Queue: 2 jobs
Job 1
Amino acid sequence: MLSTFSAVAWAAGGASSAGARSLASKTTTRTTGSPQRYFGAAARIDQISSEPGLAELFLRQCTCITPEIHLKWDALEWEEGRFSFEPADDLVRFAVKHGMSVRGHTLLWDQSTPRWAKKRLKRERDWSLIKRHFDIVLGRYADHVSEWDVINEPVGDDGSDGGFRRNTFFEAFGPSYVERALRTARERAPRARLAINDYGFDYDNPVEEKRRTNFLKMIETLRRADVPIDSVGVQAHLDLSKGPLNQRIVENFLNDLAGLGLDIAITELDVKERDLRAPIPVRDARVAAEVQSYLEVALAQPAVRGVITWGLSDRHSWLQDQMPGGRPKKLEKLNRGLPFDAELRPKPLHGAILAALQPDAPAGALALRAR
Ligand code: XIL
């Protein structure tokens, strides 16, 4: 596939992270009718505090941060009753100090539920354990976290179980756990925006088609029952082996979600590559083109309030750990699915996100776009 990004234009642009324009528009004035969106990224305080270049990059590029792991239940309470708040506290403090908003990720996710809690939930089916968890986390971060992924990944891949994923919470409480979680969160965090976040909505294949239908049905049911939910998170982990995207599918899906009266956040954008043997400029062009295609339709939807990438630099992308054989040793073998490379240099993907988020930016900023 030939992309709209030219490697030549990119090379000629040359760039360092310090010179890269900010993806987050820091101005409040708008010259066109396009809405102002936030740009953010998933972050870890251990990386930010030990790598000054990375810290600077977050400060320059983002107006929003989401903790990649620190707010997950198993990160906060690996052993029952022994809490580890420090990393989350430090990251939230870093964000607040620098005027960034925080997206709270995530209160309930099967994969990040500690083993002891899973066991107890399955055995006792006692909601008070969930309530206690929400009380502690929402209570501690209420003033600084504006939006929460209350439930992460509740959607199933087929039509069974009413479209719900058969996870610990489903097994303990049935499908009503989603509604109960949102109501419990609202009681404890009356001012926060509450969201459900999920993946696998982007491509034109039967599994994702089913997932879109299941998700829409779930949200529609919640809305009808007047359950407190303000927003949905669309993870958007793009994947070149499933692509290219069919823009109409993304457009219709976001339109249907917006039609249910909710805001939308693109919460975990990144791109898994298909062919890591192609020359790097070709790989980078493919990645950028896929995101350009996605954001072109996603940002045409006014309900989409912002974009978050799952990390900023390929150096720390979770996708490296997903590779067969684990994280590659050689730099050129790393997946290149985030806006900055492993040496924190901006890539064509940075240009693609910038162009999509800031169509009013001066022409110079768009110089990376070819043709
Ligand atoms: C991932 C983190 O990036 C990893 O570091 C961690 O080991 C596992 O979780 N969908 C989500 C995120 O909602 O929480 C996941 O984050 C990536 C997939």
Job 2
Amino acid sequence: MNKPKRGSFGSKFGAIAAIGGSVVGLGNIWRFPYLAGENGGAAFILVYIIVSFTVAIPVMLSEFAIGREAKRNAIGAFKKIAPASFWPFLGSLGIATALVIMTFYSVIAGWSLQFLLDSLLNTFDGWSAEQVKQHFNHFAQSGYTPIVWAIVYVSATAFIVISGIEKGIERYNKILMPLLVLIMVLLVCYSFSLSGFEQGVRFLLYPDFSQLTPTVIMEAVGQAFFSLSLGMGCMITYGSYIKKQENMVHMAATVALCDVSVAVLSGLMIFPAVFSFGISPTSGPELIFITLPNLFSQMTGGYLISILFFLIVFIAAITSTVSLFEVVNAYIHEEFSIGRKRATLITTLMVITLSSMCALSMMANSPIRVMGDNLFIFSDNLASNFMLPIGGLLIVIFAGWFMPKPILEQQLTNSNTVNKRSYRFFYIMIRFVSPIMLALLFLHISGII
Ligand code: TRP
């Protein structure tokens, strides 16, 4: 039997661009600033950074190791490494989480397209804050226009994914990620010139620890997992495309550094503007869609800044959605032996259905509600604060305690050729530190300790 050859990332830069493209997303540019703004700034950011480098990197390495060892999708990988066990269930949880995240992610990313168009048309020119707010609310609650954008957006994602790993995912990420960083640096340079720069930096850098409640800590952990694309098999899927000679420890460290840097850059891009115009940073998920357009319309050069800003929101989002999409796509393609193109079509239809329901549930008086919330709030909260940290905990437990030990060692040391010393460190992190910290966190949040 001649199986078609499985795809892989062609070069080291390509792999880092693709994985970097996954981690850097709406999580950095939309979610991070509004959560940091709501949760008091620096203290929240500090917890997010500490969690990223202590608890999260071991989860990422575990996912990489599982993926590259099995060379399968998120469910298939567990089936191969731990057949006839309960573990493939963890892969199913991952596929479900990918769908839950794409439900709201595609809607928000669709908004960025509407705002990109508005920016190009200079819609907000001369508008008052109240007008921008009404425009946003009218748009977001109109149901149908956001659905059209979500469909356009998901189709663009499918277009990238359909061409395969190296020729699709890797190729676009190699172009889009450097472009993203370049535009962000330009925007941060512009930020330097604003009167609120110092206040913005202070907000990002000087922690006020009285702000650290258990809820804030939980949100910071959720944010770290979300932003690093962890806890649901995304890095298992991408790990399965990493070539055997690549150094995965370097890769994980580089990617985590990129993620945290882009989050901080995006804070530097947004908060100085917010403070320059004397606005409170606590406006929640609408921060970048109401507060910023309003500011852009008052800034010198605001027309161009606005276009560039919504362009990077779109770029960041699409490279991440590609990775979420590929989790489901690879699963359908490999486990049901369906051709890649047909699998992409099936995934597209599923994601369009889910995100349309999410957009409809945001309409005023919409009957689509789960536990009193619209689908957007419900799916974000469910995925980020519960499914990802729980998935992450189970993944490190699997990698540290149930996967045969030589697998982890071979994967992290490339069969004993690199990282021999750091392997011992990460082994302890994966086996003990990461799971214990995550377990303590859950016990604390649930009020047991
Ligand atoms: N990390 C991406 C962001 O910051 C979103 C994302 C992509 C993701 N793949 C994921 C989140 C897997 C959780 C799990 O926007």
